[in-house]
Design goal:
Layout: H1 11-20, H2 24-38, E1 44-45, H3 46-50, H4 53-56, H5 61-67, E2 84-85, H6 87-94, H7 106-124, E3 131-132, H8 134-146, H9 153-172, E4 184-185, H10 186-192, H11 198-201
Antiparallel strand pairs: 1-2, 3-4
């Protein structure tokens, strides 16, 4: 039996477990899936994700794929993107989808919630300027609505614009007629999703594995 499948592993697995919250056994499961996706290569590239059938029809497919190559999601306080990722980087991104442990304190749970919301925010802040602009938000809404086939691009655009105005009114309160809304900041994003249990709902299934089972 390989080291990844064992209940014991070398020191680097201990470090990975501490950084991600996954057990050695869970790391072994994810490593097996990593090898399947990469065809036993040492790194994953975007085209490997493009071959995942469950992801093909997802309206935010491109954002999901890019999230795995976004340095902001590697827990290293860096930005920009990479062309390929190692297993460690894959594991770090996957750790954002772990549900909170039942034994967490309220403070720890809030920290997990904030991390998950930051990950989600980064997916839509594509130019990494600290705001989700109207154009970025419009793109997401248009993709979600127009992919269904029920609405045309122009209708989807109108709905996106109206939704952004609603977001502005919630985030900023009263706005003067000549006042310009630059976009959703992370603090506004937190306010908009207050009360939404993202820490329990944000998991991922397109890798043919349910991460709700990957908790201690």
């Amino acid at each position: 039996m390989g080291a990844f499948q064992s209940t014991h592993g070398p020191p680097e697995y201990t470090v990975l477990a501490e950084r991600t919250g996954f057990s050695w056994e869970q790391i072994g499961v994810l490593h097996k899936r990593f090898k399947q996706l990469s065809h036993n290569e040492e790194t994953l590239r975007r085209e490997h994700f493009s071959a995942i059938s469950d992801l093909t029809c997802n309206p935010i497919r491109s954002q999901i794929i890019e999230a795995f190559f976004d340095r902001r999601n590697f827990r290293q306080n860096s930005d920009g993107s990479v062309e390929e990722i190692t297993f460690e980087e894959f594991l770090l991104v996957m750790s954002h989808f772990r549900p909170p442990s039942l034994h967490m304190t309220e403070e720890q749970r809030e920290s997990v919630r904030r991390e998950k919301l930051r990950f989600l925010f980064n997916m839509h802040d594509t130019d990494n300027d600290g705001t989700i602009t109207l154009e970025e938000y419009r793109h997401v809404v248009e993709e979600l609505l127009s992919r269904s086939g029920a609405l045309g691009k122009e209708t989807a655009k109108s709905i996106a614009d109206a939704a952004m105005l609603e977001v502005a009114s919630i985030s900023m309160g009263h706005m003067e007629p000549d006042e310009f809304y630059e976009g959703i900041t992370f603090e506004h994003f937190l306010k908009l999703l207050k009360g939404f249990e993202i820490e329990a709902k944000m998991n991922i299934r397109f890798l043919n594995m349910d991460t709700t089972t990957l908790c201690k």
